[in-house]
């Protein structure tokens, strides 16, 4: 569903893209919110906000824990919204 064309200037991640800031190399969200998860990020951001989300991510030690966490917050956020598309 994501439109991937026409973004030649610094793709960044869904989070930085959403907040219109440049995605730094150490962006904690980049690995978990690639651009194709823009819809998911938008929903999560409305529910939790950027700072809470990154705070929570920092508390996990392992990569797989973070991935699991992100997966579930996205799922939660999209389903709170009531119109959750299936996200893979
Ligand atoms: Zn970023």
Annotate the secondary structure layout.
Elements: H1 14-18, H2 38-47, H3 50-59, H4 63-81
The protein binds zinc ion.
Zinc ion (ZN) binds at residues 12-13, 15-16, 23, 27, 29-30.
List keywords for this structure.
88 residues; mainly alpha; 4 helices; 50% helix; globular; disordered N terminus; binds zinc ion
How does this structure look, described?
With 88 residues, the protein is mainly alpha-helical. The chain has helices spanning 14-18, 38-47, 50-59, 63-81. The chain has one domain (14-81). 50% of the residues lie in helices and 0% in strands. Helix 2 crosses helix 4 (63-81). The longest helix has 19 residues, at 63-81. It is globular and about 30 Å long. The protein starts with 13 loop residues before the first helix and ends in a 7-residue tail after the last helix. Mean pLDDT is 85; it is low at 1-8. The site of zinc ion has 8 residues, from helix 1.
Briefly summarize what is shown.
By secondary structure, this protein is mainly alpha-helical.
Instruction: Please give the count of helices.
Output: 4
Instruction: Work out the strand percent.
Output: under 5%
Number of domains: 1
Backbone structural class:
mainly alpha
């Amino acid at each position: 569903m994501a439109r991937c064309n026409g973004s030649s200037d610094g793709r960044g991640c869904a989070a930085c893209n959403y907040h219109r800031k440049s995605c730094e190399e150490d962006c904690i969200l980049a690995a978990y919110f690639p651009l194709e998860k823009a819809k998911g990020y938008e929903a999560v951001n409305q529910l939790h906000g950027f700072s809470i989300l990154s705070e929570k991510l920092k508390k996990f030690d392992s990569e797989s824990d973070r991935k699991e966490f992100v997966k579930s917050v996205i799922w939660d956020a999209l389903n709170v919204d009531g119109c959750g598309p299936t996200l893979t």
